[in-house]
Amino acid sequence: MKWIASLLVALLVLTSCSGRTERDGVERNALTSVTCDALMSSSKRRRAILTSNGLSNEGIRQEFVRLVKLRTDPGKARVVYVPDALVADGYTFSKALVDEFRRSLRGTGVVASNVASVELASSTKEEVQVALEGADVVYVECGNTFFLHYHMVQKDFKALLDPLLDQGVVYVGSSAGSIAAGKTASIATWKGWDDPTVVPKIPYEGLAVLGDKSFFPHYNPQWKSLVESKRPTLDHEVITLTDNQCYSSDESGERLRG
């Protein structure tokens, strides 16, 4: 009968874990919190949307809203925008650039005043850490993957990001932001679109947002033979994304949409 008692205790703990337990949820007592975390952390998937062009169509936008709602009310969501890859492509990091990103979120329920930004290249690690505090969404922009990846490594971005993702923060990647999210950022060398000479060469270890997966954005039949020839050079899965697709992950699983 001891196993029945143990099962009942586990069920009671899991019941107390359910419901609103994130930043806008109810407080749990310390014992329950520790027990819940121990039981749930090993099976909890991260929340992420990897894309070629950001929130470029209604299906991707709806998926974005769905994931944000798993975290909090979109009207309360704090979004942190990382524009480095775009800046490397010739754009100026400015209020106008951030305002343009804010406009891209119209219709999602996200309030413009809740959107903050941090440029990794011009910030210290401590400033990046402060910028990420309280984030519900981290949106990493398109552009030069090598520049983005280099400054992620310089600011130890992975170490700052991982705890947030494990707590349910949503990662959104657009093109370079999706490549950098993979296990390896070397995918950026396959097409040769990005200039690697803008920064010193360093190992291509990525953020591994979703573990042993890497992402090839802007896929179309033109790149089929290239991808097929390059895939065997890696020890993990490479997921291709057309300009209309997204790869989405949450507690219920992972899926390719579009």
TrEMBL record:
Hydrolase keyword on record: yes
Recorded GO MF terms: serine-type peptidase activity
GO terms of biological process kind: proteolysis
Pfam families from the UniProt entry: Peptidase_S51
UniProtKB keywords: Hydrolase, Protease, Serine protease, Signal
Family: Belongs to the peptidase S51 family.
Protein known as: Dipeptidase E
Taxonomic source organism: Chloropicon primus
